[in-house]
Amino acid sequence: MGFSWSLFSATKHGADQRCLGIELHNSQAFAVYSDQGGVRLCYTPKEGEQGMAGLEQWIADNRLSELPVVISLDSLDYELHLLEAPAVADDELSAALQFRIRDIISRPVSDVIVQGFRLPSDAYRGRMDMAFAVVAEREVVRQLVSWCERLELTLELIAVPELSLLNLLADYAPDGSIGVLRLDASDGMIYLYREGALYLARHLHTGAEVLSRAAAAMPAVEDGLTLATDHSDIDAVALELQRSLDFFDSQQGMGMVSEIWVLHPDEADISAVLPVLEASINVSVRHFALPVSAAPGAPSDEQEQATLTASLAAAYGGILARQQMLAAGQGVAV
Question: How would you label 208-218 residue by residue, b for 16+ Cβ within 10 Å and e otherwise?
Answer without folding.
Answer: bbbbbebbeeb
